[in-house]
Amino acid sequence: MYSELIEVRTGSSETVVDLTREIQEYLQDKGSSVNGLLNVFVPHATAGVAVIETGAGSDTDLLAALRDLLPADDRWGHRHGSPGHGRDHVLPAIVAPSMSIPVIDGRPALGTWQSICLVDTNGDNPTRSVRLSLLTDAH
Q1: Could you tell me the strand order of the sheet in which 115-120 lies?
Q2: TM segments (predicted)?
């Protein structure tokens, strides 16, 4: 098993950050014949990981849907941080903090328009960590 922690700058507002290039670089270092399973994990209570299309509006649509579903207002019992921050703590129940992606011949086995993204609605933490763990078929 290989494992590495990468740092991702998310800034001070809600965002979807495409991690696909960093993940491809991580896998490239392991070799072009590697097959296995890549786990992408965000060790934070207020962020998640999604596979979506980016660049064509889906990433902003996702944030708009999350704003509708999880409004940043005073309804939340969890009240520290920015106003409405309680919604950020509910986010990982909707956008899971981890996922597994098949790796075939050293590349993530994604569909044509799929990207692996960090979803972060919490502007209080401008930097996030993402754990990449690769289980391979190598003996």
Answers
A1: 15-18, 115-120, 47-52
A2: none
For 7-29, what is each residue's pLDDT tens digit? 999 999 999 999 999 999 999 99
**Which tokens belong to 39?**
């786990």
| Count: domains in the chain | 1
Is 108 contained in some domain?
A: yes
Task: Give residue 108's domain range.
Answer: 9-136
Report the pLDDT value the prediction gives residue 6, as an integer from 0 to 100.
97
Q: What is the CATH number of the domain that holds 123?
A: 2.60.120.460
Whole-structure pTM value: 0.93
